[in-house]
Amino acid sequence: MDINSDGVLVRIYGIARTIVDCFKYRNKLGLDVAVEALRFARARKRISSRQAEGPVAAGGKVLEMTTSNRIPALTPRGHLVLAPTDEARTLAANLQERLEAAFERGAGHGLLELGICEVGTALPAEFAYWRDLAGRYVTTLCTSARSASRIRSIS
Question: How far apart, in whole angstroms, are the C-alpha atoms of residue 97 and residue 53?
Fold first, then answer.
C-alpha cells in the first residue's frame, strides 16, 4: 500500500516490516519508539509471541535487546553511579555491557564513554542527559586544548 504524506510517498508493507524498520532506524527515531512499536504490535496480537522473541534483525545486524534496572544517579555526596531503579529501561545488550564496565571503572570513565562513544546512540532520557553533559565537556576540553596550544605556539 502506498500513502502520500505531505508530498512524500510512504510505502506500507506490514506490521512486521514496520517494526524491523523501526529498529533499523532506531538512531533516528529513538530506541523507545522501536520498543513501543514492538510492544504495541504484541499487545494487539498483530504479531505472534514467536516473532517477538529473541534477537531482532536490524539492518542486517542482530540487535540483542535487554532491560536494565540501572540508571545514572547522583549520590548525596555528589558521586555519579549506576543506581538500581524500579523502572526497566531497554538498551542494546552490548551498550549495557559497555556502560556498566565503564561506570565500574569510575564516573569519569562512564561519562567519557557516554560523551565520546555514544554521541549518535539513541538512549533513554536518564542516559541522554549525562551523554549531552559529557559531550559538552569533551567539546569544551578539545577546543580549550587547541586554543592553549595555539597561544603557546605564537609566544
Answer: 21
